[in-house]
Amino acid sequence: MNFTLQILENPWVRLEPLGEGHREDLRAACAADPDTWNRLYPYSMLGEAFDRRWDDHLVRTQADGSWMQYAVMVGGRCMGMTCHIGADTANASVEVGGTYYHPQVRGGAVNPAAKRLMMGHAFESGARRVVYRVDAINARSRAAVLKLGAVQEGVMRQDRVTWTGRIRDTVIYSVLADEWPDVRDRLDARLLSMTQT
Questions:
Q1: Sheet containing 14-17: which strands, arranged edge to edge?
Q2: Contact 171/190 with Cβ under 8 angstroms?
Q3: Is 117:84 a contact under the CB 8 Å cutoff?
Q4: What is the rounded distance in angstroms from the CA atom of residue 38 to the CA atom of residue 17?
Q5: DSSP state of 132
Q6: Domain locations in the chain?
């Protein structure tokens, strides 16, 4: 794989390399739904935890390339984030995760449009496999990943301890390179239908 962090854009969303200029809009987006951070995420991005996460994780992993974070731009404003995680060039595999959206942009075109860009970039860069890891209790995200066209592979039991101390089971999904053309075409048709309604 020849994988780089770059601007990705389609008519519905623009994904920009996450940087300092996105910080306050992302902070506001995260603060718009504290319940999600308290219940579903393995880490917090609320209050002081936002700054710690930004300084300790986002900046470091962006610099070392282990996470490629994108600001999800809608109407010129950062309304969330999504990431390519742990690009494994030897096995041509990468995870799409670390995704959060402001509640105002959930349930519409933003998620399928962003995932269309993320998977397209991965497969165009030589990926053989794109992986999604979702908290087993996160019904909304699990349904969204299936609706994208990913295949559920299994459940990693007691996979992680979240920041609240809850032990999380993680559901693994994937899309393979030979599945991508059909997945891509269905996503494109879905997004087109959203434009026409």
A1: 8-9, 14-17, 67-74, 77-88, 93-101, 129-135, 167-176, 151-161
A2: no
A3: no
A4: 26
A5: E
A6: 8-196
* Cut 0.70: pTM above it: yes
Residues lower than pLDDT 50 in the chain: none
Q: Which residues of 85-101 are buried (b: 16+ CB within 10 A; e: fewer)?
A: bebeeeebbbbbbbbbb
Q: Is 3 helix (H, G, I), strand (E, B) or coil?
A: coil
Locate tokens 């309304």: which residue?
Answer: 79
Distances (CA, A) of 114 to 17, 59, 80: 13, 22, 11
Separation in Å, CA 46 to CA 40, 104, 173 = 13, 18, 28
Model pLDDT, residue 196? 60
Which residues, including other chains, have CB under 8 Å from residue 126's CB and lie 6 or more apart?
1, 2, 3, 92
pLDDT, residue 62, reads 81
| 129-135/93-101 β-pairing | parallel
- DSSP state letter for 22: G
Q: What share of the chain is helix, strand, coil (3-state, %, to 5)?
A: 40, 30, 25
Report, at the CATH architecture level, how domain 8-196 is classified. 3-Layer(aba) Sandwich (3.40)
Provide the 10 A C-beta neighbour count for residue 113. 24
* 90-133 tens-digit pLDDT: 999 999 999 999 999 998 999 999 999 999 999 999 999 999 99
